[in-house]
Amino acid sequence: xxxxxxxxxxxxxxxxxERVIETLKYEWLKKVPVIRGYQHLVQLCTDFSEWYxxxxxxxxxxxxxxxxxxxKKAVPLVRKNSKSIxxxxxxxxxxxxxxxGYRIKKAA
Length: 108
Hints:
Elements: H1 15-28, H2 38-54, H3 66-70, E1 89-94, E2 99-104
Antiparallel strand pairs: 1-2
């Protein structure tokens, strides 16, 4: 990952942070009907961190995840308009939000 610097008070200086917060609110917490206390919220945020860093492909990273980029793992590029789905997928179900994460097992 590369560090992005922004001037304080400039438009877009916290855009990356705002995008993560928007993803947390609209793609993760919106799927939970009721937050049942602080420990439940901590667990949801921990699960979100795992999902966001290891299971959710990022367009800016060429369909890789931040975790795979950090560990320098090769990830095959899967285009948005691809007509085929790779057969060697690993899935993980995040029960509280009913989100299923998909990723390719091994690069070809």
